[in-house]
Specification:
208 residues; alpha+beta; 5 strands
């Protein structure tokens, strides 16, 4: 949350690509105008921006000044609850990895209880030392939220995430729950159990 009196100072050093509606092509065009940061954008004349971008230029002029007339929507349907941890030093011991995942699963369970939600799909995220990132996920027949149910899936998921042929070197681990339901509705939804094994590609990652 950024208080109004801190808004302009917060925005000023940000690259223009952080602004809503400013994609890579627009960043490139703004760069040719010498506009790289939000402060640069704020210092640009309204006429220059509208001449280059039309009505969108007026949006850029206003958003650089913290003017956004869209209604605030403080409540959104939560799609997942998770926790992750980046380690100061890469870890290699699978048992240590499992211990960290169990701790994070307990945190996720506590958060689910706090917000009154449950989920059917439990996922782990593993980022290797070369920044390759993969996920492994398990989908329950019914939504779960208790830490015992989350923790029970972790050994198998971790085993499927780690390479067999080499010693793993892990820099980040995460646990998340998705497929959200209210806890009081979780018993009403049943279905066939499904094991999901997907590789999540992130910017700069290499598929294993």
């Amino acid at each position: 949350m950024i208080p109004p009196e801190q808004g302009l100072d917060f925005l000023s050093p940000l690259p223009v690509g952080k602004l809503h509606g400013v994609g890579p092509a627009t960043v490139k065009k703004l760069s040719t105008l010498g506009i790289h940061t939000v402060l640069d954008l704020r210092n640009a004349a309204r006429e220059t921006l509208t001449a280059q971008f039309g009505k969108t230029g007026l949006w850029f002029y206003e958003i650089a000044r913290g003017i956004d007339k869209r209604p605030v929507q403080p409540s959104r349907q939560r799609k997942s609850v998770g926790a992750e941890r980046t380690f100061p030093q890469n870890i290699n011991d699978p048992q240590v990895m499992l211990t960290h995942l169990q701790e994070m699963a307990s945190q996720v369970s506590a958060r689910l209880i706090t917000v009154g939600l449950a989920g059917r799909t439990i996922s782990i995220k593993v980022r290797f030392s070369d920044f390759e990132t993969i996920t492994r996920a398990y989908t329950h027949a019914q939504a779960v939220w208790r830490k015992e149910d989350l923790i029970a899936c972790l050994p198998d998921l971790l085993d499927k995430a780690l390479p067999v042929e080499s010693q793993p070197s892990i820099r980040l681990l995460g646990v998340s729950v998705s497929g959200m339901l209210r806890q009081e509705d979780s018993g009403k939804h049943t279905g066939q159990m499904d094991l999901l094994e997907d590789t999540l590609m992130e910017s700069g990652d290499v598929r294993r």
